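Design request, tokens follow.
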């Protein structure tokens, strides 16, 4: 009976940590979405770059910031590494491909404004990205604590 209670308390603690991580991930995501939107608008609206190329540049910019912020703030990683950055960018390159196709579809076929479509994709991408980054890039464990990536 006592063991069941301690397992239940441990599971509750794990869920609290995961929910806190998701909230921090969301806060980082909102920050990076703002940065990405600024780059997108700057490159497309002001510099005249094609919206898909501007989107790719904004996606990379936001993701570099996201890697560094998530490592420190969300997943409490002690040190960042080239391998961790490579895993992060690999996950995001995959997401970039999927999201670029989705952006093209929303703008060209659904006649959605490019910025609204990019924001929508950013919101929809958050839980998918969280899970991918949690299990591929940061691979930390609540029991083991934070580790170097």
């Amino acid at each position: 009976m006592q063991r069941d209670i301690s397992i239940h308390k441990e599971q509750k603690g794990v869920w609290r940590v995961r929910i806190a991580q998701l909230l921090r991930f969301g806060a980082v995501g909102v920050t990076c979405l703002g940065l990405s939107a600024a780059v997108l608008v700057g490159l497309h609206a002001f510099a005249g770059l094609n919206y898909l190329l501007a989107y790719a540049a904004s996606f990379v910019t936001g993701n570099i910031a996201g890697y560094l912020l998530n490592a420190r703030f969300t997943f409490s990683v002690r040190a960042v590494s080239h391998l961790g950055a490579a895993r992060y960018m690999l996950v995001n390159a995959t997401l970039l491909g999927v999201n670029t196709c989705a952006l093209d579809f929303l703008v060209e076929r659904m006649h959605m404004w490019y910025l609204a479509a990019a924001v929508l994709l950013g919101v929809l991408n958050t839980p998918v990205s969280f899970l991918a980054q949690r299990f591929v890039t940061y691979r930390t464990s609540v029991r083991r604590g934070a580790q170097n990536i």
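Comment from the thread starter after seeing the answer: thanks! Residues 2-138 form one domain.
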